Amino acid sequence: MGLDFSEEGVPDATTLLNFRHLLAEKGLQKKIFEVVNELLEENGIYRI
């Protein structure tokens, strides 16, 4: 993902929770889960 925690701070729990709530509010959790599963399946990592 290109994250370098030696140069950038790690998000705190409140930031992550707010992001999670935003995803739920917009109905994106299910869509993200579906896309990740599709990518895993396409790459032979996971089969539903």
What does this structure look like?
This protein is mostly helical and 48 residues long. It has a domain at 13-42. 58% of the residues lie in helices and 0% in strands. The protein is built from two helices and no strands. It has helices at 13-26, 29-42.
SS summary, helix count: 2
Radius of gyration, Cα only, in angstroms?
14 Å
Q: Given the helix and strand composition, which structural class is it?
A: mainly alpha
Low-confidence stretches: none
Tell me the major beta sheet.
Answer: none
Distance between the termini: 25 Å
SS elements, strand count: 0
Beta-strand content estimate? under 5%
Mean pLDDT: 88
- The helix content is 55-70%
State the shape.
flat
The string of secondary-structure elements, in order, is HH
Label this structure with key terms.
single chain, 48 residues, mainly alpha
Summarize it:
This protein has two helices and no strands. By secondary structure, it is an all-alpha fold.
Please specify the SSE layout and strand pairing:
Layout: H1 13-26, H2 29-42
